[in-house]
Amino acid sequence: MFSFIIRRLVSAFFVMFSISVMVFLIFFATPGVNPAARIAGRSASPQVLAQVSAEFGLNRPLPIRYALMMWHLFFKQDLTSYVNIGVKVIPQITGAAPVTLSLIVGAAVIWLVVGVALGVVAAANRGKWIDPLIMFGGIAAVSIPVFWLGQVVSLLIQRKFHSVFSWLPGSGFVPLTQSPWQWALHLLLPWLTLATLYAGVYARVLRAELVNAMNEDYVRTARAKGLSERRILIKHALRCSLVAVVSLFGLDLGSLVGGGALLTEVVFGLPGIGQLTYTSLLNLDLPVIMACVMYGAFFIVLASAIVDVLYAYLDPRVRVAK
Amino acid sequence: MIALGVLVFIVTACLLAPVYANSIAHVNPFPANVQGTIRLGGKTLSVLQPSSVGLGVTPIGPTWNFSTYFLGADPQGRDVFARLLYGGRVSLLIGFSSAIVCCAIAALLGMAAGYFGGVMDWIVSRVFDIVWAFPVLLFAICLSVILLTSGINILFIHIAAGSLLLPILIIAVVYVPYVGRPVRGIVLTLREREFIQAAIGSGASDWRILRKEIWPNVAPTVMVFFPMMVAFNMLTESSLSFLSVGVQPPNASWGTISNDGLQLLYTRPWVSIAPGILIVLTCAALNVLGDGARDAFDPKAKLRGGA
Amino acid sequence: MPMSVATATSDAVLRVRDLRVSFATRQGLVRAVDGLTLDVAPKEVVGIVGESGSGKSVAMYSVLGLVRDANAQITGSVEFEGREILGLSDKEMQPLRGGQIGMIFQDPMTALTPVYAVGRQIVEQIRQHTDMTKAQAKERAVELLAEVGIPDARRRVESFPHEFSGGMRQRVVIAMALSCNPRLLIADEPTTALDVTTQAQILDLMGRLRDTHGSSIVIITHDMGVIAEMADRVTVMYAGRPVESGPEVDIVRSPRHPYTWGLLGAVPRIGERSERLATIPGNVMSPLDVPVGCAFAPRCEYAMPACEARPEMRGEGHQHACWLSDEQRVAIRATPTKDAP
């Protein structure tokens, strides 16, 4: 088990390293892209460009620049932005992280509960009208672009049903510590928007897994034991189907925390990691980009590892193999 | 099936976009039409009307008249409906093309990794891990930001900055692991089965085995993934375009139209909402098709991305 | 072995009358079980024997209501201890399943839920049918595991199914099925998936348990050897129909149906040297092609024009469904051939 963990850590580190190199190369080694021009502005004269290059160490060999950036990012932690000169990168990340986390945690709770419940209901009522209804709902949910859903929701709330929903804010973020009620209120719509997509996916995945499980031999044994259908579905079939959902959840969560929720953040004006990454990408603010990317990759890799561990917990057969 | 019908309808409608624009509506949906007028019910109306609220101008709303400005005008006075049809061609083109490219690359890499194993497998799996470790959208934005301003000029490959090939390739690439991993998983299990061992034992060349034994078993899975990928790719493209890092003007896609209409969200909601509706319909139809394909090919199939 | 009389006595544990199970498929109607009649007396072991596809498993599944296919049509009568149970709802069947009627399935490898410890699964069944507390039920589970021969039962009650070998797993399944002292135990090919040595042990165990728990057993198998060892009475099935039934001794010593001859001929006997293993010519037919007359006629060496009409089970005690007259039968059996017993 120990060697397994070590190997896992090594490959995780390797993945993160590769990502950082890849991002760095994309932004600095792609022909035609000149970061100095970015920083100095479009119409800067050659002298200004040269000055900027020297100042930011942009005329040094690639590997050195990479090493320098990593150094400043991780060890000295004083990496500064290219665009907002002098503003440190790390605090930007730590400031944006709680926003993203608030969004994701809330949405995750909603989509897990709703998705699992709908999946169970659909599987339990297989063949009756409610099953295809839920499944179709799931397909619709998956086909909706997040930004569009956000628009529609905003439209309905702000315009059509304004009188009913006037208490719901349109956008913006209020920290939890400032006012829990406002925090939740401001996040309610983003939560629902983000959760819709994933609830659809989970309901469908779970239903498929449950239907498969209900055809397994051990379900037949459970029935022959005289257990109620409900108990069989929930205690036996569901328990065995959770594994698929858990691994999916872990990966989705990791991806979202890493900045995958950016559309929701942009539409609802939440200053989270996603939005930070997006604006920094548009501005070609490489230090911020690097920091965001490393932050995101870390969580994705972490989530992947946690999922593996949870897998072993949920399915005892896997423990033996490891 | 209904889904197929919906899809065919939408595709045909979009393909007929020029017909509509030229013969029916007599508009050119691309250049700005700020000064234009239309005839409606005998009256001549300006396309951009003075706003009833505050300053500025408001484009006219939906006329619900099929021959002219059916859904109204966008901030630049252009016919939204005609733009939707043209935009649909772009969105559909990108969706289908990148799905084809994605599935092709994924199938090749997946088969190579699963069949040859060893170093090849390790490399391909690491590549999959790294590409997939990025949230899909972020990665696509990343690549787009760089490539859209300058195009690709590597060795003999020159792609102009405004070309549609760029979004197609970018979106295709970021989704390769999604299809590639399951393909690799299937090939891995296949390789251990007796008929492959028999084929190897009888001296068949690798290429022959891949073509005749492995591919027929992988193909159904790829077929099932295909409609899903078209849907995903269209969603990604629309998101990218919405964020202005996808399709670039003068081309339009459903995502860009939606973006155009943002400022009008509360006064002329149709400009932004209509493209979204079309996207939902098309993707839902594609997903239903994908489910149907899966049921047809293998009722007990479990499509999961293996490690 | 005591010979019990297979009459419709009111104290029969199980009475099956003209059970028919058919499935509507795209290719047509499949009659999986076509008129099975069976009695099981208390403390009796009844064997149902036939090839795969003979409908023997489906028949017993439908007794417990385990046939969940929406396209299935089940008719006939099944009485358990005098009470009609065919067609009862799930809720009404639940006290019977696992409580009064226990069932063992063919493949021990997949019969247990993989994510729960075996003890927990046994306790679940016990608590479903009795008022025992968790602790009491767990004690009972340990006792049961020890009874079926699991060493170190107290520790292994916490083990997961995959930590047991096939034979051990089947013992666990047997322990679980017997946990509530059912009056009837249905065993569907309990030893087919196991090796010969384990097979002997399991059969031995089941025999002993029959004596200690007092349950009747219905054992389904394709192996005449198992029948010879375990069964008091036998019903032979072919293509969903019963073709012969009676006391095991009679069936083995003087079988009357050509199919039974084939089955017995296929059992290599010690002391006999045959030049090659006897097989029954032909293949099991597709369930869609069952002829209107005698189902076995296409493969039967002795088929006659009369066989175009379906034979019904005839006789007292030892019944058979064949048009061969007694004289014809005696003549055939007197001729020494490789395949006749």
How does the SSE layout of this entry go?
The complex is a heterotrimer of chains A (322), B (307) and C (341).
Chain A: H1 2-28, H2 35-40, H3 46-55, H4 62-76, H5 89-124, H6 130-143, H7 146-160, H8 180-214, H9 217-224, H10 229-260, H11 262-268, H12 273-282, H13 286-314, H14 316-321
Helix pairs in contact in A: 1-13, 5-6, 5-8, 5-10, 5-13, 6-8, 7-8, 7-11, 8-10, 9-10, 10-12, 10-13, 11-12, 12-13
Chain B: H1 2-15, H2 17-24, E1 37-40, E2 43-46, E3 48-50, E4 57-59, H3 80-116, H4 118-133, H5 136-150, E5 152-154, E6 157-159, H6 165-191, H7 194-201, H8 206-242, H9 254-260, H10 270-297
Helix pairs in contact in B: 1-3, 1-10, 2-3, 3-4, 3-6, 3-8, 3-9, 4-6, 5-6, 6-8, 7-8, 8-9, 8-10, 9-10
Chain C: E1 14-25, E2 28-40, E3 45-49, H1 56-63, E4 72-80, E5 83-84, H2 90-93, E6 101-104, H3 108-111, H4 118-129, H5 134-147, H6 153-156, H7 166-178, E7 184-188, H8 196-213, E8 216-221, H9 224-230, E9 233-238, E10 241-247, H10 248-253, H11 258-265, E11 319-320, H12 326-334
Helix pairs in contact in C: 4-5, 5-7, 7-8
